[in-house]
Amino acid sequence: MTAVSAVEAALAHRRRRWRPVLWLILATALLALFIGIGLLVRVLQSGTPYYSDDEQHFRYGSIGAEVASGIPYKVWQALPVLFPEEFPAGDYSSFGFLYDETQDLPIGISKRRVSGVDLVWFNCAVCHAGTYRASEEDEPQIVTGMPAHQLDLHGFTTVVLGAASDPRMGPDSLRSAMADAGVGMGPIERLLWNIVVFPRLREGMIARASRLQPLLERQPNWGYGRVDTFNPYKVLEFDWPAHTLSEEEVVGASDFPSIFLQGPRVDMQLHWDGNNPSLAERNLSAALGAGVTPETVDHGSIERVAEWLLDLEPPASPHQPGANAVARGLEIYMRDCASCHGWQGSDGYVFEGDLLGEITPLEEVGTDPNRLHSYTQAFRDEQVSELFKDTPYAFRQFQKTDGYANAPLDGLWLRGPYLHNGSVPTLADLLTPPSERPKQFMRGGDVIDPQGGFTSPPCTNENGCFNTEIRGNANTGHVWGTDLSAPDKADLIAYLLTF
Amino acid sequence: MSDPIFETLEFRNLTVKNRIFRSNISGRFDNEDGSLTQTRINWECRFAAGGAGAVISSYVPVRMDGRIIAGYATIHRDDFIPLWQKLGEAVRAHGAKYILQLSHSGRQMDIPGVHNMHRPSPAPTSKMESLHGFLCQAMSTGEVRQMVRDFAQGAWRAREAGLDGVELHAANGYLFTQFLSSAINDRIDCYGGSLRNRARFLLEVIEAIRDKVGRDFHVQVKLSATDHNNVLPWEGEGNTVVDTIQVAQWCEALGADALHVSTGSLFPHPLNPPGDLPLDVLAVTYDAMISSGVSGFRNFLLFRYPMLRPIFRWLWFRMKKGRPVEGVGYEEARLIKDAVSIPVISTGGWQTASSVRDALGHIDGVSMARALVANPHLPQLWAAGYVLAPAPCNHCNKCLGGAPKLPMGCHELARFPSRDAMIDQLMAVYDTRAALQIPGAS
Description:
The complex is a heterodimer. Chain A is mainly alpha-helical. Chain A is built from 17 helices and 13 strands. In chain A, the strands form six sheets. In chain A, strands 1-3-2 form a three-stranded antiparallel β-sheet. In chain A, strand 4 and strand 5 (about 140-145) form a beta hairpin. The longest helix of chain A is centred in the N-terminal third of the chain and has 38 residues, at about 5-45. The termini of chain A are far apart. By secondary structure, chain B is an alpha/beta fold. Chain B is about 35% helix and about 10% strand. In chain B, helix 1 (about 40-50) links the parallel strand 3 and strand 4. The interface of A and B includes residues 7 and 11 of A.
């Protein structure tokens, strides 16, 4: 067809010439729209899995730590691939994390999707789930609620902080490690990561390392089954520079406690130093230690865990001491120990005793003072004035104390090594004078010891060796029972093994 | 002492009674075939009666493929000679001279019409016109030579019609400018390249006209002193006044009798006609030109939507900064006058007697279009001692903006007591009292 005018012909020619470009632009626009919608749908996704079973919720349910403290799930999965020298077992069991085969994450690691990115971090179970074995040949049995005595949290923290500045954390190597770990990304997700996740990931890790590293440099290794509860809290939550912490307060590592049977503990002085009699405040404070913040905390989840823990019984002791010895031991216990610690009755643990849940002053108990000193009046004041300010969750009951609390001994067979700092491997050792207690022993084993606690052979290598000479590790104090006769001690131990 | 405005101006072959020329301006008064009408005679006589010394016709194409718009009389046919003769007689009857402007659009063709819409316009270049996107096709060397002959033929017809002279429209972006301008002419034959080559077409036309009409017929050349071709900033600047002075000297040497100095390598141009640009008027008239060029619709959008107008306004007005409206081309006309010995007429915003008197100390005449459209009797007012007409032209350029669709005349409502009065003045020129005939029965 002849065009009506030369201009029309020129315009038609121009249209023909530009048609491929227009199609290209249209296709690009559609693609951009498609990607945009994909990104939007992805970014709008937030939430965390719900576990109908309370114990599963305890093991894997989120308490809100991922948002502020977590790392992306895919990075979590890629780290063992990226740093094989740090993960000799190929996964997080290298640091004593426990896997129960129901999830690809260890117990104590929860997942939450935040703006389309799955993040993972700690929940309560990371520090309060452990294993035991009746003998070397047995399979480890997982017990939720017992101390995570096998967990090397210090080692894990050091590796994660070190990774922040490692060249392997660059996007390219991280991406290929993710693919190797079986958590590769689709095109939309890849875009989201390139735009948002990669730039922020490392920056966040480096920022955290820059605050925590100077603290760790002032502290000895926490060792297996132990954590410094309050000092990291000071530098991460309150932004106190590590160098401002006094020499007296800077070392504070102590054992993870068991968390069985919280109901009877209401109104006792909780925490090793008994600094708070409120279960709710203690729980929330512990959650902050796990990485939640007042902004990200999932109160519902924490309260569900707390409710479940109220009457969580420890498993029955597998020790089978002679009944006569137990009976004799009960007498000694009732005479010398029960007023402070309660006692094990035939129907379970009896939380009664004049001094149970009260604080014994440091000069009287004589145990290592570092944990007590790490909780300072200044820290307490900031906790009370700043955390959960103007909400019903605001802390009111924290107090600076002068000693350590008298704890109930339920589930005692799972709670070795003993004392707040785990400095005494067995009950038998605890009943010997401090000067005769083992100076060095291996921690982290889970084979139960007939003398109470877990077998803790003398040190053979540095990793896992607990040295009582190191600051915070003193095995002094708690001399009650050390002056008993050998038969009385044997009877007392027999009774204690039934706890 | 006599008033310099009203001194006679002696050209080699023509004497004009004063120094006032009606510059080139027209409406679509004529027939589709290019034959002129009574309306045009009325139009030209309005200025002759008002006292102008000479009326220079508006754009008169020498060929139908050189029209800028239908409705402008042409001089491409011998049988139009009697019509032009009548027009010349009418103007002279009012005491003025009539100079016919021989023109060809080249690529600057505003509305191609039925004769030209089907093909690109003949031009020195095949590069489309920059502002509207008018299409063109470079002429072959042979076609250029034919064009030279067609101009000479047009001049011969003007002389045959008894007109007082011709003017070659070698300004404002039409065909001659397209040859002259270094920013437009991209030829590689003897009509492109050096200034001498670019001027060759104009000079050959002058020579051909002289060959055709002899030495004793008034031939003047309208030149743009400076191209200022970069209205769109990415375009080249084109010829400077130094180039034009050289061209003017060559024109004189080949027998031109006078120079008429304008400016700009396109029309309209920010500096010609100087003054405002009524984008609101273009918003209702430029639609007639949308289909004329490949950029027409773009321009229309720029005029149509107030939000977009600042873009065009910036393009257009950046060049005007620091320049006067009245006598905008005076300094350049002076420079040219200093370099030649033939009379030089300056155009561009003139309408104040005192300014014109001052200018006439250096140049020989001024030409005006809008000032006389607003006040055809301005020469008489000047003669009566007025410096400025009581209701002077405000250089709003609404007459220009209306050109594609509206009747030619002053459209500045503020200058009239009422809209009816304005329309009455616009319609007055159509008072033709035609002797209507019965076709085929005369």
